[in-house]
């Protein structure tokens, strides 16, 4: 199919997003932008969050990783289930009880202003790096299959994509994103299952036959029993649980949508529904990866990793499926960036600039400030995506999970300390602890061969980081003074 026609499809899809944004952002204000006026439908939020959780990295990298790790990612998925249950029944009741707009306000109430600002700051760094890495992956694929042949440079492609996202999030924020995410998740899942169905037909296999073939080629292996391996099953399950607790339950982007639901009960329904759908979808992505690696040798495709999915579809499968793949890929792109820019804007305005506390600003002035911050983050996204392009990492999912271990570890330590102890912190020392722990983790990882022998650190680095922060906070804390009430679960 010609790149020009694929480009026209891209523009048509974006026009549909703009129509949805126009319909949902009329009469929008700051409350609409930040928390959707607390009126979001839990079913829409749950379904739309599937797309936000998966993103383009899952769409491309999880199938691509099957060639090296088999179905090993399923170990992490088991941990995800544990983590989502913890978010639903431990964190959400706390957030609703305190009626939070920013979840990091809990840290202010419980631990103090420096803890609050540290938590918000690490979220901003985490989401900036993670969202731009996801955005880079999908833009890079679009560049390869469409835009290079049209002579469009990568920097301009990224600028145009970010401009598109700004157009439909600039006014409505969460109120708009709840609906656009639903549309995009539908397109992404349709693309996933269409690709599975077509590949099964091309291979002339049933699902059981294909699974047997994957098993015989070592593509369907799930559990790793080598304790020293970064992929050891217990490490992966624990890491999966902690990743979900931090990257969902302690992440303003994910919780901003969840707490936009009116009641706690409906919000918990949202979280459990998301869990069930996500397990099915992630296992389907692994199955798709197995099919790609069965089909690639037959078609003469030598690509692997993140490149195998687009190489097989765009080079060897029917034109109709190429269109479906393109729309699904775009649908994976937008939720990973639109919600991130919105959540980063919200956290910066509320947590760092104190927009809700500032009585010196009119509502119009607050809205102007929020829009300037929104534009500023779009510019940062452009800069970081170009940086990832220069680095050209072959597997973005590994990089993103590694970044999460460093940047979400302090959030894990802060929230755990607040909920598991009743001690009071020496507030001014908190930033030193939260910055120092990731530095110690980096030194530990760099010197692990000398310090740990044959043992290799994997995703458990997130837990190590959180423990170091917890221990550091304990060292700078003292017993709660009589008459002071700590906000605990």
Summed up, what is this model?
It is built from 20 helices and 2 strands. It is mostly helical.
Describe this entry's structure for a reader:
- Helix 4 (73-97) packs antiparallel against helix 12 (264-299) and helix 7 packs antiparallel against helix 15.
- The protein has a two-stranded antiparallel sheet with strand order 1-2.
- The model is unreliable at 32-37 (pLDDT under 50).
- Helices cover 76% and strands 1% of the residues.
- By secondary structure, it is mostly helical.
Distance between the termini: 56 Å
Compressed to H and E, one letter per element, the order equals HHHHHHHHHHHHHHHHHEHHHE
Fraction of residues in helix: over 70%
Shape: globular
Report the strand count. 2
**Could you give a short account of the major beta sheet?**
2 strands, antiparallel
Q: Helical region count?
A: 20
Radius of gyration: 22 Å
Overall average pLDDT: 83
Q: Which structural class do the helices and strands define? A: mainly alpha
Uncertain parts: 32-37
β-strand percent reads under 5%
Main sheet: strand order: 1-2
Characterize the quaternary organization of these chains.
single chain
Strand and helix map with partners:
Elements: H1 3-24, H2 30-35, H3 42-69, H4 73-97, H5 105-110, H6 113-147, H7 154-169, H8 174-203, H9 207-216, H10 233-249, H11 252-258, H12 264-299, H13 308-316, H14 319-352, H15 363-391, H16 396-407, H17 409-420, E1 424-425, H18 430-446, H19 448-452, H20 461-475, E2 477-478
Antiparallel strand pairs: 1-2
Helix pairs in contact: 1-7, 1-8, 1-14, 3-6, 3-8, 3-12, 3-14, 4-10, 4-12, 6-7, 6-14, 6-15, 6-16, 7-14, 7-15, 8-12, 8-14, 9-12, 11-14, 12-13, 14-15, 16-20, 17-18, 17-20, 18-20
């Amino acid at each position: 199919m010609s790149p020009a026609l694929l480009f026209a499809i891209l523009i048509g899809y974006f026009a549909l997003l703009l129509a949805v944004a126009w319909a949902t952002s009329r009469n929008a204000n700051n409350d609409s932008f930040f928390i959707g006026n607390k009126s979001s439908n839990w079913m829409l939020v749950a379904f739309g969050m599937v797309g936000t959780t998966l993103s383009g990295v899952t769409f491309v990298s999880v199938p691509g990783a099957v060639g090296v790790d088999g179905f090993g990612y399923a170990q992490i998925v088991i941990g995800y289930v544990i983590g989502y249950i913890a978010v639903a029944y431990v964190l959400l009741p706390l957030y609703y009880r305190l009626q939070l707009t920013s979840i990091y306000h809990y840290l202010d109430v419980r631990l103090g202003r420096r803890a609050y600002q540290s938590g918000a700051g690490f979220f901003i760094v985490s989401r900036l790096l993670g969202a731009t890495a996801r955005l880079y992956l999908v833009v890079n694929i679009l560049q390869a299959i469409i835009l290079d042949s049209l002579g469009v440079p990568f920097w301009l492609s990224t600028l145009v994509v970010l401009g598109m996202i700004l157009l439909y999030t600039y006014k409505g924020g969460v109120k708009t994103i709840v609906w656009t995410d639903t549309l995009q998740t539908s397109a992404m899942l349709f693309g996933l299952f269409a690709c599975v169905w077509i590949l099964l037909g091309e291979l002339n296999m049933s699902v059981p036959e294909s699974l047997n073939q994957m098993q015989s080629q070592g593509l369907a292996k799930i559990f790793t029993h080598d304790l020293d391996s970064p992929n050891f099953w217990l490490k992966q399950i624990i890491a999966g649980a902690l990743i979900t607790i931090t990257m969902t339950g302690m992440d303003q982007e994910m919780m901003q949508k969840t707490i936009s639901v009116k009641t706690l009960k409906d919000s918990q329904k949202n979280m459990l529904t998301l869990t069930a759908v996500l397990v099915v979808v992630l296992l389907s992505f692994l199955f798709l990866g197995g099919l790609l690696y069965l089909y690639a040798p037959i078609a003469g495709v030598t690509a692997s990793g993140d490149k195998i999915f687009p190489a097989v579809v765009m080079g060897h499968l029917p034109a109709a499926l190429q269109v479906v793949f393109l729309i699904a890929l775009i649908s994976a792109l937008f939720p990973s960036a639109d919600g991130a820019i919105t959540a980063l804007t919200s956290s910066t305005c509320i947590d760092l600039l104190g927009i809700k506390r500032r009585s010196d600003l009119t509502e119009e002035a607050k809205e102007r400030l929020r829009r300037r911050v929104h534009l500023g983050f779009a510019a940062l996204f452009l800069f970081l995506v170009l940086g990832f392009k220069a680095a050209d990492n072959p597997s973005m999912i590994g990089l993103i999970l590694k970044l999460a271990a460093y940047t979400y570890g302090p959030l894990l330590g802060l929230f755990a300390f607040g909920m598991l102890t009743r001690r009071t912190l020496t507030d001014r020392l908190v930033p030193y602890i939260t910055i120092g722990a990731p530095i110690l983790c980096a030194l530990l990882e760099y010197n692990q061969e000398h310090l740990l022998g044959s043992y290799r650190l994997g995703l458990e680095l997130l837990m190590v980081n959180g423990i170091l922060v917890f221990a550091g906070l304990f060292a700078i804390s003292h017993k709660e003074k009589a008459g002071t009430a700590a906000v605990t679960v």
